Amino acid sequence: LIGGCRMSELLLSGATSDEAMTALFALQIDGDPKQRFAEGALAQAAAFDEPGAPERTCHHPMRDMPGSEFIWLRVRDTAVHAWDLATALGIDATLDPEMVELMWTQVEPAAPFLAASGMFGSGASGNLPPEATTQQRLLDTLGRRA
């Protein structure tokens, strides 16, 4: 999450995909991780709030996209990692249902491309029952297994 915030700042300031990925993998997290995340989240928000940020082209590793699309990628990434953390900690991992519904409308059409990217494991498992919740469908498509 801290690295994603830093990567967002870089991409919104014109960094190439390679530059952003290099910074992400070289990131050293020292000090209080919660404090580092709070600082990173504020810096990321400031980068998205800059004049022209929605129109700016971000050279994301997945593909080039405008800032107005990239922000939704960051929302999804943060939400999914919140689920990851809650699951790892054994606490309630229920995401906001309205946010899940909105994210699903964005993810469902892209499911085949997401699986092919390799960034989400093998993608959807194909093993969900018909009564699966939207959250289960979203997470499964993004390579998460309960």
Could you give a short description of this structure?
The chain has 146 residues and is mainly alpha-helical. It is built from seven helices and three strands. The relative contact order is 0.11.
Q: How are the elements arranged and paired?
A:
Elements: H1 2-12, H2 17-26, H3 33-49, E1 57-59, E2 64-66, H4 67-89, H5 97-107, H6 111-117, E3 119-122, H7 134-141
Antiparallel strand pairs: 1-2
Helix pairs in contact: 1-2, 1-3, 5-7
What kind of sheet is the major sheet?
A: 2 strands, antiparallel
Q: What's the number of extended β-strand segments?
A: 3
Rg to the nearest angstrom?
Answer: 16 Å
Strand content: 5-15%
> Number of helical runs?
7
Please give the share of residues in helix: 55-70%
Based on the structure, what is the oligomeric state of the protein chains? single chain
Average residue-wise pLDDT: 91
